[in-house]
Amino acid sequence: MAHDGLSELIGTGGGRAPTKPSPAVWLKVRYRLTAWWARVLVVFVVSRVVTSAILLWFASRQEANAWTGAHPGYLDFAKMWDGHWYFIVALAGYPSELPMTDDGHVGESAWAFMPAYPFLVRGLMFVSGLDFRAVAVFVSVAFALGTALMFYKLMRLVLPEGTALFSVVLYCFAPLSPILQVAYAESMQAFFLTVALYLLMKRDYWALLPVVVVMSLTRPSGLAFALALGLHVVYRWVRRDRDPFGRREIVASVTAGLVSVASGFAWLFVAAATTGSLTAYTDTELAWRSAYIGYQELVPLTPWFLGANFWVPGALGVGLLVAAVVAFAALMFTPAVRRLGPDIRFWVASYVLYLLAVFFPQSSTFRLLLPVFPLWGALAQPRSLVYRLALVGLCIAGQFGWIHIAWWVDGYDWTPP
Questions:
Q1: Is the pTM of this model over 0.90?
Q2: Which domain holds residue 393?
Q3: What are the C-alpha distances in Å from 150 to residues 145, 367, 378?
Q4: Burial group, residue 304, by CB count within 10 angstroms (0-12, 13-18, 19+)
Q5: Which keywords annotate this record (predicted)?
Q6: What confidence tens digit (pLDDT) does each residue in 335-345 have?
């Protein structure tokens, strides 16, 4: 029973003096008496200590590069790569004219980076008087903590208490978790995504509206979430005899889907209106892949085939891509993933389809897969202690691997995070 340990700690009455509990019983009782948010907070703090130590170890070995001098401090190390672009947006905003390359193509610019994160950082810089580096890291860590708390509540909708907490452990120690404490928008997106999924599963459609708008202006996600919402509406309509789907809920859910579609296109329209080019945003995004395959038009559902042929020329590359897609589809129907419920599966499938439609695969793929982190709930389900310790160990090893490959700059580095 839930109170067996407590009974042993305080005695069972009848005049019998309380017995001194064993350390195991004492820890069990303390755990049961600890609020869920405090457990999540402990997990988060321990994970940040581990990840910070790893980042500092790499920073101490970092040579001079385009962003920092040799052996930079933590804040400088956390501002590298796209962090510098967010710094530009926070201080200078967006250009009214698109930069052009010598051969007449649209070049890289701030338009590839959405405004919610850098503008929030800019506002807090104004209020606090602190510089970009400190505020950007603070914002990222704060949203990462918020995500951990909301992720626990999300997982508790579909999983037992202990499994939900271990899902949070995996989120906090994941190989990509260093991105949660640098000058990147990923943790902010993860927070609003987790809130959005929670509201969707609670069927609070009207509350979804502002969340989806902010999320869509933090990282590209509006169109993928709109597809997930569409699948949710279809699913509820098909099951309406067993699960009533009244007119008010239909109106609210469809409205949320339409708002998500509009939010998904909003930044394209803002970039077009400011620069005078209808394709300003997509042309800017395409500039980043030009280093791999040159300048090309954006044709949906072709980038991964181009990438497969680039990385593994010939039929083998395409065959590996097809096998990966089939394996992912099979994963979505495994018992562990099905236990997460239809809405999480709708989101994961929709987001992966979005990536397949528009993204060219390279080293940033690992980071762009971060929004499928609710799948940690599937990996968290086995209760074996050996399994769980081994999985956390692999996650920490993965942090070393990802930082070495993608974040740490080693000479001419073509593997951006």
A1: yes
A2: 34-407
A3: 9, 20, 17
A4: buried
A5: Endoplasmic reticulum, Glycosyltransferase, GPI-anchor biosynthesis, Membrane, Transferase, Transmembrane, Transmembrane helix
A6: 999 999 999 99
